[in-house]
Every structure is written in C-alpha cells, then in structure tokens.
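Lab notes, practical 5.
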Amino acid sequence: MTPDQIGFALLYLGLFLLIGKWIRVKSKVLQNLFLPSSVIAGFLALLLGPQVLGNFFDGGFWSTGVVTDEVTQVWETLPGLLINIVFATLFLGTILPNLKKVWDIGGPQLAFGWTLGWGQYVFGILLALLVLGPFFGLPPMVGALIEVGFEGGHGTAAGLQGTFEEMDFAEAYDLAIGLATIGILSGVIIGIIMINWGVRKQKTEVIKDTDETSATQRAGIIEFENREPAAKMTVRPESIEPLSLHFAIIGLAILVGYFILEALIWLEATIIGTDLMTYVPLFPLAMIGGILVQLFFTKMDYTNILDRRMVMRIQGLALDVLILAAIATVSLEVIGRNIVPFLLLALVGILWNVFGFFVLAPRMIPTYWLERAIGDFGQSMGITATGLLLMRVADPEAKSPSFEGFGYKQLIFEPFLGGGLVTALSVPLIFQFGPVPFLIFSVVMLAIGILVGLFHFGKKTA
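Output from the prediction step:
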C-alpha cells in the first residue's frame, strides 16, 4: 500500500462525514433519533462498500462497491489507534480531582459497569454449560465470548485469535468478531431508542423536550447568536500553532502510556516469566499517561497553555473518525457462521444489558441516571467508543457528570474488564481450571457490584 492510497483513504473519511452531515440536515427521521453524522456516514459506507453493494456485482469495477480494498485496510486500523487519543484526552486540560471525588462521581458508574461486565460472564458461562455445550458440542470457553465481544470489541477479539487457536477453539475468533459486530450495531440502535424513550418519559435531566427543539438544533447546527469560540489561543501562532501544540501533548500522553505498558510487559516477563500483560490494550495506559502529563503541567506550567476546549475538539475529531471507520468495516460475513450459538450468545448479552439499564441503573445511580448509565450500557454492548457516542447524544454539551464519571470509572474498570486483564485471561483461565471456578468467581464479583451499587450509591440523594 502506497502513501498516496493511505492519504486517499483518510480524505475519503472526510467525504463520508460531509455526506453524513448533509443527510442528517435533510432527514427528519434521523434528527428525531439524534443520530450523529458519524454514525450515518459509517452505515452509508458499510452499505456502499464491498460487503453490501459489492455483493451485487461479480467481479469488475463495482466488486468492492465505492470503497476499495485499500481504503478498507486503512479504515480497519483506525479504531484501535484513535481510541488511544480519546482516552489520552479524558483528563488533559482539567484539574485532577482527589480520590474522594473520583469515588463519589465515578463510583456509581463503576458499580453499574462492573455489574454489567461480570453479569455477561455469569450468564454466558451458564448458557455454555446448560445449552451450548450439551446441544451444540461447544467447549465451555464459549461462555466468555459475550464479554470478550461486547465489552472487549473487535480489537480484543483479534488480539485473542492466537490464544483461541492454541486452545483448539479457532471458531471462537469468528464468534467473538461477530458478537463485536452485532454489539456495536445493536448498541447504537438500542441506545438511541433508550434515549428517545427517556426524553418522552421525562427520565432525562439534560434533554427535556425534543418537541421544543428548534429546527437548527435538530439539524445539529448552533444558532448564530449562541455560537461560542471552539477553543482559546493559549500560545502565539508564530511560535507554534495552538492546535499543533495540543496535538503534540496528546501524542506525549500516548507515548507515556506506551512506555508504561512496555515496562509492565518487561517486568512481568523478567520477574514472573509470563506474558499476560501483552494482552492488555494500550488505551487504558494512554489515559494514565494523560493523567501523568496533566500532573506535570499542573505543577510546572504557570501559563496554563493547555486549553480544555482545544483538547475536546481533538477528542471529538478522533471519536467521529473512529465511529465512522468502525461501523464501515464491521464484518457481516461472520454473523452467518455458527448462527444459532451466535444468536443465543448475542440475545443473552443484549437482554442482560437491557435489564441492567432499565432495572438496576435507576437504583444504582442517584442523579442523571440515564445520561450516565447510557454510556456504560453502550460500552457493555459495543466497546468504549459506543458508550461515548451515546453519552454525547444524551448530553451533547456535557452538562451532567456523565463524561467525568465515565472517565473516573475507567481508571478502575479498564485494567480488568472491557479489554483488560480479566477479558484477556478469561478464556485461558476457563481452559486451565474449568468453567465452574471462574463462574463462582464471576458470581462473587457480580454480587459485589450489585450490593455496592444498590445499597451504597443507590441510597444517596442529589
């Protein structure tokens, strides 16, 4: 692949984003769904790509639709890269809170997300033991795939491909990729429906009444009189462009996270002789890198050159491109493989997450429960980016503590679930020790999440 092809693939993203925005402006249905332009653009690219449009043509110019193989190859790598930017920017340009504030604000979302994640293991393993094993001959490791596919996503599933093969369960890769695919699609669709339900039933505290929203607001355009600067100029452009400076600082945060991860991998290999840390993704460490960089600037920078609004604009760009690329490149083919076990796994995962949202979240999260729970629901269905997307729809101006609480929650959540250590080790642990010990451990972790959520945070008032 040449640099020109890579450059064209990136330019093509901009074209689809523009078309997605134009469709959003013109479509009342999509406006009523609060569907972001990046999601519209992603589905459009999926429909016009080789998996849908290309299937109507047997060879020839249109065999890949309007999205070439080179474009697809570039787009497939973007979500795993851009999620590092999203997480590195979570705390840059902010005043870092003390541990009490982290627990008070992020604790309810941690308890709820913890409950959803461990519940996926509990019900997945039970499904494997009671149905998928006896009737379909699948090994008990298949029970871990709901959490691997839904919480971990395509990147985690791909990272575990070698592990699946070593354990003579290569089919798990296709199942996990398929679950990640349906998780993203159903997570966005169900999540948007939930937000609209919340608005109609007056469960939301930020978006109160969509009927009173102006035409320009529905189209996603800010009225001229309400427009504010997107960012502040904290340095003089003749010395360095402010956008360039902030991009460099974000890059530094990701590099710090990368060196931390490499150090942990080296220490584990040297001291213990294992390679478990190689399964840990970079983005939670990129967030830690962002915290360390922010601590440095808090102590050493007396000119306040870091502007939070500028950081948020870079984060927003990364998130828009990530969402478009992730949706446009999901694999539709794998959904047809092992269709009955796949559908059962997907159905159990979806039902548990929906139950958790409607039944547990209002009782665990004392304030702004829908705006905050929708992010954890999205992450539990289709990776972190889906949760961030749904929170942006439910709280477009970040008026609630949803984004802040979500970020605090990730400090404890991500090292274990959603692509962390537990996600990476669940299949090997079940293979090594059997499903029952891991099921018991998962039940204990689930009980802790439910008890803390219901009887500690759930009893608090605004």
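Observations recorded by the TA: The mean pLDDT is 84. Residues 99-136 form the longest helix (38 residues).
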